[in-house]
Amino acid sequence: MLLIPGGFARLAGLDAALLRLGLPARVESVRLAEVHGIVLVLGFVGVAVRASVRQTIGAPV
């Protein structure tokens, strides 16, 4: 359940990548294209950290 925000951040980063490439994207926002890198990195790191914490405490990932 807590991985959902990280998933949304990763999808937003991928959507921003499409905008940066000049391809059609679902969400068209100039601001999203500007923050593409940080959104994608935070989404990835958030999911990776959350998964490792859940594995450490023995909860299903």
Strand content: under 5%
The mean pLDDT is: 79
Share of residues in helices? over 70%
Total number of domains = 1
Instruction: Detail the poorly predicted runs.
Output: none
- Report, as a whole number of angstroms, the end-to-end distance: 10 Å
Q: Count of DSSP E strands?
A: 0
What kind of sheet is the major sheet?
A: none
The structural class is mainly alpha
CA gyration radius, whole angstroms? 14 Å
* Coarse morphology: elongated
Give the H and E element order: HHH
Q: How many DSSP helices? A: 3
Explain what the structure shows:
- With 61 residues, this protein is mostly helical.
- It contains three helices and no strands.
Describe the structure concisely.
This protein has 61 residues and is mainly α.
Secondary structure topology:
Layout: H1 4-21, H2 30-34, H3 36-56
Helix pairs in contact: 1-3
What distinguishing features does this structure have?
single chain, 61 residues, mainly alpha, 3 helices, 0% strand
